[in-house]
Recover the amino acids of this structure.
C-alpha cells in the first residue's frame, strides 16, 4: 500500500489549485461536449451546496453494467457495498446503514423497514433499467428529506417521459458470470400532443456466487443447508435468486396548467438466498413482492410559488419465509413548493406516511411532518437554515376476535405494545463561504431523530424486535468541507462526525438448546467455553437469533477526498480516498467502521465517430487501518476491474472483467469472500 501513488493526484498539474482567477461560470454544457458532461455539470451544483453529494448518470450505469441500484453505488466515495448474495447487498454511507440510509424514487420515499435485511429502504425492488440518474447525498444536511437519515439519501430519478411527439423502444440482454446471471429488459415509450406512455419489463435469473476460494463457500452453503428446518422444502441454498419487474407510466403535460403522472410498478422475486452481517450462515426469503402505485401533479407556478409538487404513493411489500407471510403496506402523501421571498430561496412542504405491518402480529406507525428550508445570500456567504416538525404514533393492533386482556399478559412478540408517540423536531444549519471564485468552504450541522421502524420494533422472521424497550435514535451531525472547481478539475475534501446519544443496533444472542451434549463435549476436552472453542459444533449446542437493541453514546467520524480531472475531451480520471471509524463502549458497534480505502478510475474515449469505443480501468486499495476486527482476521487487498465497450448505430455493447488478478479477498465485516475473476456483458438495441 505504501508504494501506491494515486493516479488522480499525479494528474493534477502543480498550478491547478493556485489558479483562483478562473470563474466557475465558464463550466457550461455545449453541443460538442464529451458524452459524460452531464456528470461534470453536476459538479457545479455540488460546488455550491453546503453539503457533500455525488452523481451517477445513465451513461455510467450502462458502462459499468450495474446489475441493480445498490450495485451502482460502488464507485461513490465513502459508500461501501458489501455482497450478501447475488441479490442482497449491505449499503453503508459514511459507515451508517439500515434505516439511516433513505431511498427516494422520483420524490417518493421507499418504505424504510428493512424487510430485505440489506440496509435502508428496499432500493433493489426498483428496476435499474428504468433509472435515469442517482444522486447520493451524504449525511443528513437538509430537513426536506427525512428526520433520521444520518447516513444519507439515495435520490433516484427514473427515465423522464419526453413530451415531444415520439415513439422509441429498447431491448437489452445481459450475462454476468460472477452470479451466473442472465437478464433481459424491454421498454417502449411514446408521446403525442402532450399525452404519453412508457411501458417496461425486466427478468433476472442468478444461479450462484463465484469466488476464487470455492471450497470455503461450498462449506458455508453445506453447513447452512444441513441446519435449515424448512417445511416441504427441497430447494438448496445457493446465494442466487430469480426476479421480474414491470412498470407503466402515463402522463399528460399541459404546459402552464401542469403535468400529471400516474405510474404502477411491480416487482416479484423468489428463492432469494443471502447472508447477514458477519455470520457464516445463509438465510432465505422464498418470495418477495412489491406493488407500487403513484400519482404526481407538478405545477410550474402558482401565484408566487414555483415548482409545486403534490404526490401520493401506495406501496405493498410482501415476503414469505418458510411458509410465514409478512406484509408491509405504506401510504405516503407529500406536498412541496418553492418561493423566492425577502431575498431568500425557500423550500417548504409536508408529508404523511402510514406504515402497517401484518404478520404474526399487526403493528402500525403513522408519521406526520412539515418542513421549511431556505438559502439566504450575504455577498460571499450563503446561509442555509431549516427546520422539520415531526410526529410519530406507533401502535400494535389486534385481530378481530382476539382477547386483548389475555394477550397483554404475554411477553415479547405475542404481547402488547403500549402506544408510542413522539413529536421531537429536527433542524439543520449550513453555510457556504466563497474564498475565491474557484474555492468554497462549507459547513453543515444537522440534528437527526427517528423512531424505530415497525420492523425494528416487532421483527417477524429471522430477527427479533426490541418492542417497547426501544428508544428513539438521536444524533448531532457535523461536516466541514473545502471544494475547488475549474473548467477541468473538481476537488472536494471533507471531515465529518456523528454523535449518537442512542443508536439502534443488532447483536447475536445465544441460548443453549442441548446442554447434555455440550457438557459431554467439555468432559471429553473438545470444547472450552473460556476460549470460545466448541469443536465447530456451535449449531449443535446453541440456538442463535439476532435482535435489535439500543447502544449508548456512539461516535462515528471520518474523512473523504474526491477528485475529478478532465485532462481532455477523451481522457478523464476520477479518484476518492475515505474512511470512517465508529467508537463506543458497546462491543457490537465497532463492526460498522470502515478502513481507509483508495479508488481510482481512468477513462479513455477513442476518437472514432462510427463506433465510439471507450475503455475504463478501475482500481481499489483497501487497508487495515483503522484495524478491522473480525472472525478469521482481515487482510488488506487491492482489486482491479476493466470496463470497455462501443456503439454502432442503434446497438451498444458494454462489457468488462472484475477482479482481474482473481484475488481472494474479504470485504471488511462481510460474511462472504468477494467475487473472483468474472466477466459480464450487456447488449442494448434501441429503435
Amino acid at each position: 500500500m505504501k508504494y501506491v501513488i494515486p493516479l488522480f493526484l499525479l494528474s493534477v498539474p502543480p498550478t491547478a489549485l493556485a489558479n483562483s482567477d478562473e470563474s466557475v461560470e465558464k463550466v457550461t454544457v455545449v453541443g460538442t461536449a464529451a458524452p459524460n458532461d452531464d456528470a461534470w455539470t453536476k459538479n457545479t451544483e455540488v460546488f455550491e451546496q453546503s453539503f457533500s453529494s455525488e452523481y451517477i448518470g445513465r451513461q455510467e450505469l450502462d458502462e459499468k453494467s450495474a446489475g441493480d441500484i445498490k450495485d451502482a453505488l460502488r464507485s461513490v466515495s465513502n459508500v461501501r457495498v458489501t455482497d450478501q448474495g447475488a441479490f442482497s447487498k449491505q449499503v453503508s454511507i459514511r459507515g451508517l446503514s439500515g434505516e439511516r440510509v433513505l431511498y427516494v424514487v422520483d420524490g417518493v420515499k421507499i418504505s424504510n423497514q428493512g424487510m430485505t435485511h440489506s440496509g435502508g429502504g428496499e432500493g433493489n425492488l426498483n428496476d435499474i433499467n428504468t433509472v435515469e440518474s442517482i444522486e447520493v447525498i451524504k449525511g443528513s444536511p437538509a430537513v426536506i428529506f427525512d428526520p433520521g437519515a444520518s447516513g444519507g439519501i439515495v435520490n433516484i430519478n427514473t427515465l423522464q417521459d419526453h413530451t415531444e411527439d415520439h415513439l422509441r423502444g429498447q431491448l437489452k440482454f445481459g450475462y454476468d458470470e460472477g452470479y451466473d446471471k442472465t437478464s433481459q429488459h424491454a421498454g417502449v415509450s411514446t408521446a403525442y400532443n402532450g399525452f404519453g406512455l412508457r411501458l417496461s419489463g425486466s427478468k433476472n435469473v442468478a444461479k450462484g456466487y463465484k469466488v476464487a476460494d470455492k471450497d470455503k463457500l461450498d462449506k458455508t452453503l453445506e453447513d447452512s443447508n444441513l441446519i435449515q428446518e424448512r417445511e416441504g422444502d427441497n430447494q438448496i441454498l445457493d446465494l442466487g435468486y430469480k426476479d421480474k419487474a414491470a412498470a407503466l407510466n402515463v402522463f399528460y403535460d399541459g404546459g402552464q396548467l401542469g403535468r400529471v403522472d400516474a405510474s404502477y410498478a411491480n416487482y416479484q422475486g423468489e428463492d432469494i438466498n443471502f447472508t447477514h452481517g458477519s455470520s457464516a450462515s445463509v438465510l432465505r426469503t422464498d418470495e418477495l413482492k412489491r406493488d407500487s402505485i403513484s400519482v404526481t401533479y407538478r405545477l410550474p407556478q402558482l401565484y408566487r410559488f414555483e415548482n409545486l409538487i403534490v404526490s401520493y404513493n401506495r406501496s405493498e411489500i410482501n415476503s414469505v419465509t418458510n411458509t410465514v407471510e409478512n406484509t408491509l403496506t405504506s401510504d405516503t402523501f407529500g406536498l412541496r413548493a418553492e418561493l423566492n421571498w425577502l431575498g431568500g430561496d425557500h423550500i417548504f412542504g409536508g408529508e404523511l406516511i402510514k406504515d402497517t405491518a401484518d404478520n404474526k402480529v399487526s403493528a402500525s406507525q403513522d408519521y406526520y411532518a412539515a418542513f421549511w428550508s431556505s438559502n439566504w445570500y450575504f455577498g460571499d456567504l450563503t446561509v442555509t437554515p431549516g427546520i422539520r416538525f415531526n410526529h410519530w404514533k406507533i401502535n400494535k393492533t389486534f385481530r378481530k376476535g382476539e382477547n386483548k386482556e389475555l394477550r397483554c399478559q404475554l411477553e415479547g412478540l405475542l404481547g402488547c405494545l403500549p402506544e408510542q408517540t413522539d413529536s421531537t423536531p429536527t433542524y439543520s444549519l449550513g453555510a457556504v463561504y466563497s474564498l475565491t471564485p474557484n474555492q468554497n468552504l462549507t459547513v453543515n450541522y444537522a440534528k437527526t431523530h427517528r423512531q424505530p421502524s415497525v420492523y425494528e420494533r416487532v421483527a417477524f422472521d429471522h430477527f427479533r424486535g426490541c418492542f417497547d424497550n426501544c428508544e428513539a435514535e438521536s444524533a448531532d451531525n457535523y461536516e466541514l468541507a473545502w471544494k475547488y472547481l475549474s473548467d477541468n478539475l473538481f476537488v472536494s475534501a471533507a471531515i465529518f462526525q456523528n454523535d449518537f446519544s442512542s443508536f439502534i443496533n443488532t447483536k447475536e444472542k445465544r441460548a443453549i438448546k442441548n446442554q447434555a451434549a455440550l457438557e459431554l463435549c467439555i468432559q471429553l476436552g473438545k470444547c472450552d467455553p473460556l476460549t470460545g472453542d466448541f469443536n465447530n459444533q456451535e449449531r449443535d449446542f446453541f440456538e442463535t437469533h439476532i435482535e435489535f437493541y439500543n447502544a449508548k453514546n456512539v461516535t462515528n467520524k471520518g474523512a473523504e477526498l474526491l477528485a475529478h480531472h478532465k485532462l481532455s475531451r477523451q481522457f478523464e480520471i476520477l479518484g476518492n480516498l475515505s474512511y470512517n471509524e465508529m467508537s463506543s463502549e458497546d462491543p457490537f458497534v465497532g463492526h460498522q467502521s470502515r478502513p481507509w480505502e483508495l479508488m481510482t478510475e481512468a477513462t479513455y474515449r477513442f476518437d472514432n465517430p462510427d463506433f465510439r469505443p471507450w475503455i475504463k480501468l478501475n482500481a481499489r486499495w483497501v487497508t487495515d487501518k483503522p484495524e478491522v476486527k473480525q472472525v478469521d482476521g482481515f487482510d488488506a487487498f487491492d482489486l482491479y476491474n476493466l470496463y470497455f465497450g462501443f456503439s454502432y448505430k442503434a446497438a451498444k455493447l458494454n462489457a468488462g472483467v472484475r477482479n482481474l488478478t482473481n484475488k481472494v479477498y474479504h470485504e471488511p465485516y462481510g460474511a462472504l469472500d468477494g467475487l473472483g475473476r468474472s466477466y459480464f456483458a450487456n447488449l442494448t438495441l434501441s429503435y
